[in-house]
User: Which sequence fits this backbone?
């Protein structure tokens, strides 16, 4: 046996990691090779020293409420920058721009959108794939609404036709939109209603029944021009959802703030 | 239930309690997001340890970039020479916080992962192969190289430590 080969085996042997099939060969070599026997001694001392070091080099104890801290951080990140708010905030941010000409406004909107996306990428959705298809259109004052299509995988759904969407069984916030002028400006949306649910799927019952009594559809003109955006907030509390909802309502002043039984 | 182990791994690689807590927290946040993908512990625990190792090693390498292990970090060489008990006795008396992380820095990433799991965390070779998704032979190769490197570092810093038996 060559010492070079023994060297690798010794490093395993010292911690009991050498397969049994190779042990006999190594032991025989050690009997006859002083250099390798000494090498084994050094490895043994190194292992012992390492054990001592590892025992004395210990971190401070974890805080008693460490798991509580982690859960709080998870919740915080989830609610810090909801993409839904970011999207809607575009309208607020550029309100002074309403007086500007349409062409300038489009550019400003585009900047606002890009910025918002970049922010949300850094936060909660840092590791999620974000698909965007932006189709910003010239809009008139009073009808400034985003018309880009955003889709955060899992957490943001829509805008999708109210009559076609499958609503998941999760807590979250929803917004009902409509197209004020679907024929001439098919990509422009206006906000009709913003609400929150502990189970968004329960909306299917109340919301999705077109009829003369459903003001959302009345406002939209026809069921086909009513749309929904869902922002899923798994494990959110009612209080958290309500806060986001109130913030959105305050900013976007939807057509209705109450809608019967919804 | 996993947090002490995760925290300990992160500490062995960062050498700093606050950084180790940050890493443990990030691991648990990732874990939280991925929890529904795991329905049995068989797949879950290895994944968790792999995640921790990768996060901590990435962090360590970022911090350590361009830095070299200095002799002085092992303490005053004169004081060691005066100490008749040799380095072992000296280490017993001295608290060297973060020294393990500086040692693991000397290894390649692959060696470091195996070394932390085997010699610092006490996992078996088959367990490590599962965690790192490689063969046991690969684990042994990295382990042997890691131990040799650690031993060489210690020999370099403590020449008397390397003295051969007569
Ligand atoms: Zn030999």
Assistant:
């Amino acid at each position: 046996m060559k010492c070079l080969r023994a060297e690798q085996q010794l490093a395993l042997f010292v911690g009991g990691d050498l397969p049994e099939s190779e042990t006999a060969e190594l032991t025989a070599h050690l009997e006859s090779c002083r250099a390798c026997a000494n090498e084994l001694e050094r490895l043994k001392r190194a292992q012992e020293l390492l054990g001592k070091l590892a025992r004395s080099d210990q971190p401070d104890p974890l805080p008693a409420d460490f798991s509580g801290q982690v859960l709080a951080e998870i919740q915080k990140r989830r609610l810090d920058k909801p993409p839904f708010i970011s999207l809607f905030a575009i309208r607020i941010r550029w309100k002074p721009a309403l007086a500007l000409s349409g062409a300038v406004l489009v550019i400003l909107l585009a900047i606002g959108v890009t910025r918002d996306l970049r922010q949300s990428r850094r936060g909660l959705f840092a590791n999620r794939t974000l698909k965007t298809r932006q189709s910003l259109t010239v809009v008139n004052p009073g009808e400034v609404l985003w018309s880009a299509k955003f889709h955060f995988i899992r957490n943001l759904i829509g805008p999708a036709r109210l009559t076609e969407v499958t609503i998941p069984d999760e807590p979250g916030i929803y917004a009902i939109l409509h197209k004020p002028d679907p024929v001439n400006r098919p990509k422009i949306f206006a906000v009709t209603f913003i609400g929150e649910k502990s189970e968004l799927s329960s909306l299917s019952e109340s919301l999705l029944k077109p009829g003369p009594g459903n003001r959302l559809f009345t406002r939209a003109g026809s069921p086909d021009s009513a749309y929904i955006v869902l922002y899923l907030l798994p494990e959110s509390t009612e209080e958290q959802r309500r806060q986001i909802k109130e913030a959105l309502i305050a900013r976007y002043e939807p057509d209705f703030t109450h809608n019967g039984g919804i | 239930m996993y947090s002490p182990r995760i925290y300990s791994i992160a500490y062995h690689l960062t050498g700093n309690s606050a950084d180790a807590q940050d890493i443990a927290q990030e691991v648990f946040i990732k874990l939280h997001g991925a929890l529904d993908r795991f329905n049995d512990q068989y797949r879950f625990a290895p994944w968790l340890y792999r995640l921790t190792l990768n996060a901590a090693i990435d962090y360590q390498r970022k911090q350590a970039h361009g830095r070299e292990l200095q002799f002085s970090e092992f303490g005053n060489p004169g004081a060691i020479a005066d100490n008749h008990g040799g380095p072992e006795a000296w280490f017993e008396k001295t608290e060297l916080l973060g020294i393990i992380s500086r040692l693991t820095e000397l290894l390649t990433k692959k060696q470091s992962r195996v070394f932390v799991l085997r010699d610092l965390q006490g996992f078996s070779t088959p367990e490590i192969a599962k965690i790192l998704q490689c063969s046991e032979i690969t684990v042994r190769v990295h382990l042997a190289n890691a131990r040799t490197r650690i031993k060489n570092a210690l020999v370099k810093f403590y020449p008397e430590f390397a003295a051969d038996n007569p």
Notes: The CA atoms of residues 27 and 51 of chain B lie 7 Å apart. Confidence is low (pLDDT under 50) at residues 69-84 of chain B.
